[in-house]
Structures
1.
Amino acid sequence: MPHVFPNVFPTRHEMTIAEIVALTRAEPRQDAPLDRCIANIAPLDAAQASDITFLDNQKYLGELASTRAGACLLAPRFAAAAPARLAVLVTAEPYRAFVAVARALFPGSLRPSSLFGVSGRAEGAHVHPTARLEAGVTADPMVVIGPGAEVGAGTVIAAGAIIGPGVAVGRDCSIGAGATLLHALIGDRVIIHPGARIGQDGFGFLPSRNGHVKIPQNRRVIIQDDVEIGANVTIDRGSTRDTVIGEGTKIDNLVQIAHNVTIGRHCLIAGQVGISGSARLGDFVMLGGKVGIADHVTIGNGASLGAQSGVMTDVPAGARWLGSPAQPVRDFM
């Protein structure tokens, strides 16, 4: 028997295949039962009658014949191989369509929510009298919001999170449990996962024979709209200029971003990346896991760096580099 995977988030509502077709613009096979209800998502080998699955990789074609899914999104090249009993929805991008259905079925999984099930300010949340919270802010127990802080409507702050003095958080944001936000300006619809540390000291010391002299870190962290920041990410505040995370950028867990760094719009940064002080990333840059970037390096728009690349020099726009020290892919190979 295939495994049945329990969901940690409830389904908002079931969707008919007709609704899925309308959402994804997939082409149903002629015999597809458009009134069938779909309540869950699953891989091909585990899917049951109320599940939707997908296929866009030749490697899993053998599982198509035996799947028990209620519906399957698949690429045109696989349509002929689908068994007659299967409700087939043909689309050029099956996984993109599958994600769209998953988002519609499980909207609660897309951002951290209240861990206490509250709406509004819970008993046990500590909000300074000079803080300003717009209507519709949710603050769990043990939340601390400091003097002069501002939080926009629709923002959810989970248990134990700290919003420091003077921090501004925009509307419809999600701040995960135990996150700390200091010396920061946060845009709208920003998602910050549990344990993130934003706005603490940058690592700045002036070496001398008598020890290392601490350099003041006097600037802020600015996070623009629609950014997502993973669990236990650290983003240091600037020393001579603000640390900036551009609109739409997505940052994985366990990433370190140092002081004065500027990251452009819609970048993708995988886990365990380290970006040293005053580095600059353009728009749509992609960094694989464990990439290390030296200080004052510039990464051009659309550049892509493979996992574990060690970057010690500027990278041109659109380049694909690998290795340590990093170099163009063709040279690396």
2.
Amino acid sequence: MAEVEERIHRIKSHKNVLGLLIVDEDGKPLRSAMGGNSNNDPMPKQYAKKVTEIAKKARSVVRDIDPLNDLTFFRVRSKKQEIMVALDKNLFLIVIQN
């Protein structure tokens, strides 16, 4: 468990990282490390829900094209920020950065 916390801290300490989420396949945040968040902050849940929906659709597209392939990582960039998602069988690691 200490190794997981160490990795989360290492990712979060990068210059432009705004937040990090670990989310289950249902879009429920399991671990949130978003800057300045409180328990009442709706942002982690919004990111978790929406990014999980996109990830499931992207994974489906990859599998439709090649059933033996699977999506492992994708990145979405907007004008203000970038969202990077690493997928496992039932967990998603979401990193938000400027």
